[in-house]
Specification:
The protein starts with 9 loop residues before the first helix and ends in a 15-residue tail after the last helix. A two-stranded antiparallel sheet has the order 1-2. By secondary structure, it is mostly helical. 70% of the residues lie in helices and 5% in strands. It is built from 6 helices and 2 strands; from the N terminus they run H-H-E-E-H-H-H-H.
Length: 198
């Protein structure tokens, strides 16, 4: 399996598109959808009215293994199924599906067939959190009574508080799973020194 330095090559996208025909990748993405649905019920309490969702871990893993083409379908299916199975009374809005797809795409562009480093993990998580804040605030302003700036401010504070813990969780999960995913033939060799570099 080939590693790519950047996603800006025809070979990268040809490899990513081939994952649509890869039975193992499709099965893995289906398992990650199930994992997201289960993990949506598992939240880490961080304080009054603050709890950290861990579904981003399954989304990042799917992006790592399946690539940016498959995660478009994964994001659409995962967001829609999660809504219908555990919406909590909120209305369905396709903007949130777009946010999920874009977040998965960002993870894929940083992780799929790339040498995983702490720098990549930090950049991927910072960018996904920024797009979550910008788009999530827009969707909330469209759906509810308060203005965009209100939602932007509250969401930015919340995401900034979550960010360090999310980075550490994702980094340690990938460090633990990269050797396993390599041994099962899902990924090229990532950690010859058995730890993430910078």
């Amino acid at each position: 399996m080939q590693l790519f330095k950047t996603p800006f090559s025809a070979a990268y996208w040809k490899t990513a598109a081939a994952e649509l025909k890869n039975y193992r990748a499709l099965v893995f993405s289906a398992l990650m959808i199930a994992a997201c649905i289960v993990l949506s019920h598992c939240k880490i309490p961080l304080g009054e009215n603050l709890s950290l969702s861990v579904t981003f871990l399954a989304r990042a893993l799917c992006a790592l293994v399946c690539g940016p083409v498959v995660v478009i379908l994964f994001g659409a299916a995962e967001d829609t199924l999660s809504f219908f199975l555990s919406s909590g009374g909120y209305p369905y809005f396709p903007g949130y599906m777009l946010t999920t797809i874009l977040g998965c795409m960002i993870y894929a562009l940083f992780f799929y067939r790339a040498k995983i480093t702490w720098r990549r993990i930090i950049l991927a998580k910072v960018i996904t959190n920024i797009q979550n804040v910008l788009l999530g605030s827009l969707w909330s302003a469209m759906l509810y009574s308060k203005g965009y700036i209100y939602y932007l401010t509250t969401s930015a504070v919340k995401n900034a508080l979550y960010l360090p813990l999310q980075i550490l969780m994702l980094g340690f999960l990938l460090q633990a799973l990269l050797p396993v995913l390599h041994k099962t033939g899902k990924l090229p060799l990532q950690l010859p020194e058995e730890r993430l570099g910078w």
